[in-house]
User: Which sequence fits this backbone?
């Protein structure tokens, strides 16, 4: 829109990047924010409406001009592969491969700092190494739509007491500490032998476009940042939210409250809303820690100090 | 780009509209210019590079939301139909039809003010009624690419002397004058019987992306406005222009000079150029009447006063 870009999120984890949604103009917003393109490893698409998708051919072309040659992974709901293949007819000769994952049912685990940058489907959360895990949830919109959780796990602290009690030779402490199993003098040693208690990582949740659901409150549980659509600011527009399968600010705030998240960031405002801040009170009265998103909004999430 | 929209031209003829090229963000530029969408009858695409095309799915979706139900015509080079069909996989349920014309070899004539708004392929220029004619030329780029001429013809002036000498009954003068043949008292009367000499209309030429060609100088002959790519401002970038199949400002100005056009409007500047005005002298020293295009540039072309 003339005065606001379409909703999109770029996550930066130690220089590697994940993008969620890519409406027309997203690459321009990225240029303004000077995010760079080359380190973009994953694109998550919530659903196949144009305002979440039509920037993809342009972004992928620009990525091709950035010197990227590693494969990129695109995750989306059922049907996304056909749509992306259609959009890509006009983009010839990309210097990298595109892997498409439709409607993932398990967790997707990714060690973004490893060279392969390949996502593995895993069955449960893996807290043993510092990595990123992606989880998807089916939402309730006018066509197949996914919400996403992003977990950044934190490696447990090194415990010399545990290493000693497990009789681990000092020589391999450091290697085990980085999460690698070690065979030393014909005996296998596992990382848990030198690591202490689990530590809290970071959880970020991204929910758009949908009606509120009980499964969402469960999905976003204890998120550090819950990014949620707030298409309608005014409570009187509830009938529009119901008809068009969106949410009001109040409904998003109710989800934030039920999910006991740390912070709610509202985005995806109706073009009819010029000043979303005017409706902030409708969310705040239900969930105090609310931010109204704006172009170029930037936030750092860090591990808790100990 | 953050500081400049992609090159695109919207023509407005008595409220009906023709768009040439539609890169990412063109619909945003149209919103800023408050052009409206509903009256857009024709889109001409020069070629299938993203910066001329990737705004199409978004624009056509927006057009669908504008209440348009009349068919729209898209004209482009060989191969454009497959690419447009790909882009449109993500756009479902448009309330209007899309007619695609690939690489037209003849003139396309359109009476934009008639209800049908259908393009007819014709073999020669038709000066008898006030209408618009589109002519395409194959250019020399890295993939199939078309340049376009747009003619707005001007109906010849009514000549009472001619009507009298042709013995045309006064009762049908007005009807013949509007370009319609009339059967009156079992005799056919044609418009030429009441019309005087041809009058100069308007010719607009749009050439991007290409190397200069002799056929271009011929094609743009006597244009009132010659819109031309000037990808490189600096004459020292000629090797880049040759390699990437583009033109320098100087080369565009040489075409303008050879074609004896009234005015040259440069557009399609390389992202490496921040201030195209800095290179204006390179065009002006060859062709004086040069304009450097900018976001929102607007110009009216009118029939000559008599």
Assistant:
């Amino acid at each position: 829109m003339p005065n606001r870009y379409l909703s999109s999120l770029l996550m930066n984890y130690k220089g590697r990047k994940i993008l969620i949604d890519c409406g027309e103009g997203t690459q321009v917003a990225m240029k303004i924010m000077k995010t760079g393109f080359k380190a973009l490893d994953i694109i998550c698409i919530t659903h196949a409406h144009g305002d979440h998708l039509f920037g993809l051919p342009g972004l992928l072309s620009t990525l091709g001009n950035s010197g990227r040659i590693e494969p990129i992974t695109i995750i989306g709901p059922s049907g996304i592969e056909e749509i992306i293949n259609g959009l890509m007819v006009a983009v010839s000769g990309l210097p990298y491969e595109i892997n498409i994952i439709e409607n993932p049912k398990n967790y997707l685990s990714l060690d973004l700092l490893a060279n392969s940058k390949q996502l593995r489907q895993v069955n449960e959360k893996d807290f043993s190494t510092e990595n990123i895990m992606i989880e998807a949830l089916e939402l309730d919109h006018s066509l197949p739509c996914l919400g996403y959780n992003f977990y950044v796990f934190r490696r447990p602290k090194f415990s010399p007491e545990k290493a000693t009690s497990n009789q681990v030779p000092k020589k391999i402490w450091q290697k085990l500490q980085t999460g690698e199993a070690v065979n030393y003098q014909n005996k296998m040693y596992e990382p848990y032998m030198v690591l202490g208690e689990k530590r809290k990582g970071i959880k970020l949740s991204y929910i758009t476009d949908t009606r509120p659901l009980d499964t969402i409150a469960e999905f976003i549980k204890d998120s550090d940042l819950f990014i949620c659509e707030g298409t309608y600011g005014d409570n009187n527009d509830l009938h529009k939210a119901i008809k068009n399968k969106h949410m009001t600010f109040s409904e998003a705030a109710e989800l934030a409250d039920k999910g006991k998240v740390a912070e709610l960031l509202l985005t995806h405002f109706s073009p009819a809303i010029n000043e979303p801040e005017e409706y902030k009170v409708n969310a705040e009265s239900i969930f105090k820690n609310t931010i109204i998103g704006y172009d170029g909004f930037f936030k750092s999430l860090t591990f808790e100090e100990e």
About this structure: The interface with chain A takes residues 1-2, 24-25, 27-28, 31-32, 48, 50, 53-55, 57-58, 61, 82-83, 85-91 of chain B (CB under 8 Å). DSSP finds nine helices and 15 strands in chain B. The domain at 1-126 of chain B is CATH 3.60.15.10 (Metallo-beta-lactamase; Chain A).
